[in-house]
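User: Could you check the structure of this?
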Amino acid sequence: MDTEDITKLLTLVTTEWSKSECKEAVEAAVLLEEVLNTPPVDKRWDDTEGLRCSPPDLSGVDVGQDEGGVGRIVEIIRKVNNQLSWKTPKHLLSSKLRSGFSTTTSLSEVLGGEDKFKSAMIVGSDT
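Assistant: Sure, the predicted structure tokens are below.
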């Protein structure tokens, strides 16, 4: 994995979040800054629960203006997209964990199709 590009991505996200008016974003920026000040761990994710999925297709994502650094963030994600460990978030797969959603409406219906919501595991502990 290209840790230099991942570091650029996280640094840019940290910068943009730290300028936010959202208290939670600023708090997340502080945490992310702490992470960036520790040595990276380049460890493959053991997908014991079968949550791994293909990277999202970002070719049609038009960021237009670079408002809030979004354009630069998307460009870096495009560069490292196939190197990231993408997964479907477990809390969105389980109807028990999705208590705010209707039990009769599937997540794919809410999001407009299968495989529309993914997360990339970029930051986390090695345990």
